[in-house]
Amino acid sequence: HIDLRSSISDQESMLIAFYKACNVKWACPLKTRLEGDPAIGEGVNHFLFSMITQKLKCGFHLNFGNTHTTRFFDGEPDHLVPSSSAHLVDSDLFFVAGRMIGHCFLHGGPPLSGLSPAVVHVISGGSAETAVVEISDCPDLDLHQKIILLDGDSELTPEEKESVNDLCFSWDLPPINTSNRRWLYERLLHHAVIGHTMRQIKQLRKGLKETMLWPLLCQRTDVLPVIFPREINDVLTQECVLNSITWPSMVKNNDDDNDDECSLEDQRRVAGYLRQFIENASSPELKALVKFWVGWEVPTTSLKLEVTYSNLPKASTCFETLRLPSRYEDFQAFKKELLACISTVDTGFGLV
């Protein structure tokens, strides 16, 4: 369970303590309880896995003395590599990260996108020597600037040669000359990306093995884009969301004695506003909407929509139901309040 009344760092400590626990059957059904929040059911599990994936990508509020946020992965989107922090390795936090990734996948949660293909290759059992590393995979700006000097045929200044040679000597490599320039470029880049992170990658593998996901990665390389998708491919489209929605019935039921039901005109108008919002929304906005709707960014096969008498948009994540107020007469007002509501998805359910 997680106490939402506690600080973010305390909540993260609870998460890490759970994923460090021994003898956990990760494939078993999960029951999550949020202390201080009345939410129950499957939507709470969705919220948990969405939070885990977000923290793996954006960082935990773990204070190791140097920064307010500690990132497990550094670099550009689609070129993320494990952090070189010794504290994370010594604390077995990449082992924890591997368990988190596997646990999310086993329960249908959002994947960890944006990892470097070279890192994914090694994580999934590929040889470190055959990993194809790009200069964009090097998150250390100082190393990046030194290594990129070797890319090409332009003459290096004495200062640049000295800088490169100092790096070569520190990694037991020969100094630069006319015949080994390209070879040095590849060796330095490989060491900066893969060599520096092998301990982290081994811990990730160990965590994936604990969840029984690693054998799948080794034997079925075709699932790698599903488990570790590229950031550019991990987008939510308007068609995907629209096709998943169960729209309110637009046929008047004369046998219905419910006086609280909104008029067909109100239902058509508000449903039309939602369709217009989705058709013009960006992928991040769509993900926030779906997360508000069902608890995570993965749309289900039946996103239910209801138009009701209420003040603000609300969602029952366990029943995958979005309830929109019937009072809107203007699309811009509808859009403004919907965006305000879906921006609260990280603060919980009943606490919103």
Automatic annotation (TrEMBL):
PROSITE patterns to which the protein is assigned, alphabetical: HECT
Residue ranges annotated for the HECT domain, each copy included: 175-352
Alphabetical list of Pfam families matching this protein: HECT (PF00632)
Active site: 318
Segments forming a coiled coil: none
Matching InterPro entries: HECT_dom, Hect_E3_ubiquitin_ligase
Keywords, ordered alphabetically: Transferase, Ubl conjugation pathway
Presence of keyword ATP-binding: no
GO molecular function: ubiquitin-protein transferase activity
Keyword Transferase belongs to the record: yes
Protein name as it appears in the record: HECT domain-containing protein
Origin species: Triplophysa rosa
